[in-house]
Each structure stands twice: as structure tokens, then as C-alpha cells.
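Reopening closed ticket. The problem is back. First fold of the pair:
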Amino acid sequence: MLIKFRLALFVLVTILLLSACSNSQEPAVPSSDEVATFPPPTTFTPEPTIVPSATATPEPTFTAVPTSMPTLGVKEAGFSAWCAPNSLYATELGYTMPEGAQVARQENGFTEVDGIVQSCTFIYTFNQPIPDGMQVALYDTRPEPWFIYPLTRAADNPAIGYFFTNHEYIVNLPYWEVDYRFELQDAAGVVLRSDEIHILRPQNVGYCFGGYLPDPVTLKCEFLGEAHPWDPWYGWDLDPKLP
């Protein structure tokens, strides 16, 4: 009987202890007049993403292409000549043709000028400014030039070169006519152009017996001996006769 009493007492004490512990652990509920405070929420700040810098694309480099110069040469129809007659008075003669000058003629592939004048000027017009050392070599039937003229560069146009001559074998020709070859050469002697020049002495002086021209210098006919009435040259003397 005593044992049952003790057991019942133990059970009762245990129930009372469990009830007390349950009441002490309930959280305090705030009244309606109190404002509940909560800790601030934890925010996450993302780290900035490092974007690799773009590699600069180099601009394409422009390589200037050098402009190729044309080969030095005389322009088409770039060769001309004129001569100052003995009747022309001029204090200064450049390459510009003065009024009253005689213009060279083109005959059968030759450039023809008269052979009794004060002077002649031969002009070359190039496709670009002419370099130093340009010259014109004059040839007759011999393999070597009989005269060489340096080209003078025109003051108002560096693409024009000319030479002036009063050589007697051009302006006071001791023959009725003669052919020359003019070779345009650079400073190294390379021939850039070749022209055939025909120098013609005026032939309006009359003719000798047989239709021959007199001596080009003396303008006299050849002496054929004393003429008799039966000689074919009878009536002809040293002076030529106009037709």
C-alpha cells in the first residue's frame, strides 16, 4: 500500500514540473500598442564584374603609292624651228618666234629651213621639266657629230628646251642644200629623238647653161670657154639667167 502511494506521488510531482516548464518558455507577445522592431534585412551587394578592356583595332596604315613619272620625251608635234631673216631687227631673241620670222616647213619627212638668215632657233617641248645636261648633236654624213649644242631651259616653262645658232653652215650655207641629222641626247648621251633637217639656200638666182645652178657662194656660172656662134653655150656668160 505504501508503495502505491509513493508511485502516485511521483507521478503527480512529475506532471507538475512538466507543466511549470511549459509555461516559462512561451514567448512574450507584444500588445497591440507596441511596434515590433525587427533587425534590418541582410542585403547582398554584388561585386562588379570586371569586363576586360576591348583591344583597340589598329587603323589600317595607308602606304602612298609613288606616282610614276612618264619616260622623258618630246611631245607629239613638240619639235619646231624658226629663223630670223637678215631683214629682221631684234635686240633679243629667245625661243618665242618674233613677228617676221620664217617658220620651218615640213617637207617629205624633213624639217626644212632657209639657209641665208641671221639665225635659227630649234625648240623641243617635253612631257615634263627637262633635266640638266640635255644637248643636240648635229651630224652630216660622217659618223661623228660636227657640232653639239646644249639645250637652254626656257625661263617661263621648264618643259621647253631650245638652242640658238648662227653657225655659217646653217645660216649662211655654202651649198645650195644640205641634210643634217639632229639627235636629241640626255646627259649620258642616250638618244631621245632624231630629226632630219634640210637646209635650203634660196634658189631664185637663175640658172646657168644646161639648167645648172651657179656657185652658191659667188653666184657665178662655170666658165665654159670662149663662146662662138656655133657653141651651144653661145650667149651665156658667167651670170645666171632667170627663167
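Second fold of the pair, where the issue appears:
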Amino acid sequence: MKKLFLLCVILFLSGTLKAQSDWKSISYFKTNGLNELSEKKYCIVTVSRTGTGNVEIFDSSKAENYKFSMTVKEMKKFNKKIKKSGIYKINQDSLKSGLSGSENVKGPYSNMTITLEYTKEQIEEMKRENEEKEKNPVLLIPADYNRKYIYSVSRLFDAVENIVPDDIRNKTELLKK
């Protein structure tokens, strides 16, 4: 019986560890882009590397907050989609379009902040190589991102929208499929 219990604990821990990635949290913002206060709508999806998430939905008359969590299997799938998006390979400076902020974006738009998590070994290696990432543990994907990266950014935005459970997603047209 003890062996079975130990085996279950080991399997659980190995599954949890494999689901972790090199990001600490992700914050995704999406708006309908309307400036009229009575028509303005936006939502913020926040996900932590532990698999917990939060969706805040705002419109002219109300604000709602919903929590969700992902299984280890869902986290693995999500992490795989983030890596497949190719976002880690894109230079932060080249991701910017050259415009000056989201006020130049007409209509609906989205942006994202990914807070990165580095191991001590990675930090030491970056110090040796004097990489810029050492100074910037945050990856910003602006609303006015360089359209050269539309494929990578679209995949990333879709991955975040798709982790939100259907019952929450259906509460706002901003996240509906």
C-alpha cells in the first residue's frame, strides 16, 4: 500500500513539474476598441504558471471576475502552444511596429505581457554573455506589434483565449470563438 501511495505521489509530482515552463505569468488584454464609454468593452485574462487563471470582463455597466484552473495536461498543451508560437525567438525591439502606442490602433486590439522566469543557471549564463534579457524579465507584445510577426502573435493570443473555459468565454463576445 505504501509503495502504491509513493508511486502516485511521484507520478503526480513528475506531471506537475513537466507542466512548468519558463514563464511566470501571462496577462492578456483585449478590447473592442470603441471609445464611447457606453459601448466600450474589454477583458483581461491572467494566467499563472501554476495553472490558475482569472478573467476580468468590463463594459459600460458592470465588471465581472471569474477564476479558472487548468489540469496538468491542459498546462502541457498550453506551454507547447506558447513555444510553437515562436514568440521567444523574436527580438523584443523588432516586435515593435515603430508606432507610438495603442492609440494608433484603430478598432479592436489586444496586447500581452509575459513575465519570464529564469533559473539561477540561466541568469549566470546571461550575465556572462551580457544579454539584454537579464535586464528585461518581461516580454511585451504591444497592440501595434510589427505585422511581420502576425502568425506568431496570433497563435499566442489564440492559445490564451482558448484556455478560458467555454462557460466564462461565452459571457463576453470578445472571447467567443
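Update: turned out to be a display glitch only; the data is intact. The chain has six helices and six strands. Strands lie at 23-31, 41-48, 52-59, 62-69, 109-116, 138-141. Please close again.
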